[in-house]
Design goal:
8 strands, SH3 type barrels, alpha+beta, 5-stranded antiparallel beta sheet
């Protein structure tokens, strides 16, 4: 089962509104306190278009000074990156962030991988369209998967889904 605590994280609450101003969402944010300092990792997603290195640089320039002030004399290591093409979901909140993108979900009720495009999420389930179920030949137009049945989920990048200038 996926976690549900991202939105309650103090770091998320502090930095999500800042990133919203830039048109980005926090996919993951984690802090590790080390003897020599603090290591913070932020994974971001641009709401419009693909997330680029320039987006990462913008977030770094916005967040680093603020975190440095909060930490005082402790050393700060800040890493900002994209979610990648086939990100493994860690929190249910990611279904809202990646709405409209293709995903693969291991459904414990069906005991199979289910793939489709995320249409939306409610308190009980995730809605998919253009659905295919592992070991079934026909495509299903729409399907709901209960949140409790989701064991694993990840983005499912398909080269055929994207325009590549051809």
């Amino acid at each position: 089962m996926l976690d549900t605590g991202l939105e309650e994280s103090p770091l998320f609450r502090e930095y999500a509104p800042l990133l919203e101003q830039l048109g980005m969402d926090i996919v993951e944010i984690a802090q590790a306190n080390r003897r020599e300092g603090v290591n913070v990792v932020i994974i971001i997603h641009a709401r419009e278009g693909e997330t680029t290195v320039d987006h990462c640089a913008d977030v770094y320039r916005l967040v680093y000074p603020r975190m440095q002030l909060a930490l005082g004399d402790r050393d700060l290591s800040l890493e900002v990156s994209t979610p990648g093409l086939e990100r493994v979901f860690k929190d249910l909140h990611e279904f809202t962030i990646f709405q409209g993108r293709r995903v693969r979900i291991y459904d414990s009720g069906r005991r199979a991988w289910v793939g489709g495009i995320i249409e939306g999420m409610s308190e009980q389930n995730v809605g998919l369209s253009d659905v295919y179920v592992e070991n079934q030949s026909e495509k299903i137009e729409k399907m709901n998967i209960t949140l409790t049945a989701i064991q694993k989920a990840k983005l499912d990048y398909r080269w055929e889904d994207e325009r590549h200038g051809n």
